[in-house]
Amino acid sequence: MPTTEANPPLTTTVAHCPLCDAPLDPEHPDACTKCDWVAPSHPSQHAGGTIRDKIAVCLSIVPGLGHIYKGHKTTGVLYLIGSIFAFAFCFLAGAASAGWGLLLMPLYWVGVMIQVYWLEDLGLAPKKKG
User: pLDDT category, 60, cuts 50, 70, 90?
Assistant: First the structure.
């Protein structure tokens, strides 16, 4: 039987989350409330390059201090202790390879600095009362 309406009502298209396919809120289509997906343009995405990131990289000349500065105290202490073993290993490798093993130390430093640069900053987060 034919419909009685001349023109069927238009349906609005709702955007869906690319991860879980849940409908997105039309007022905030750049973040999913069901899963943790956010669009690259969302303000919560870490842009990097804040002054605290740069200070943490400078403090990472002593591996672990940048982590402590950004609020990751346990990780920072582990990097401080681990750097002693890393230095010892590099000097041992340097002695065994006519100095070439000493090139491992800058690689370790740069790795720690890159990691602390992109690490989430917990130093500014409010403390949770529990």
Answer: very high
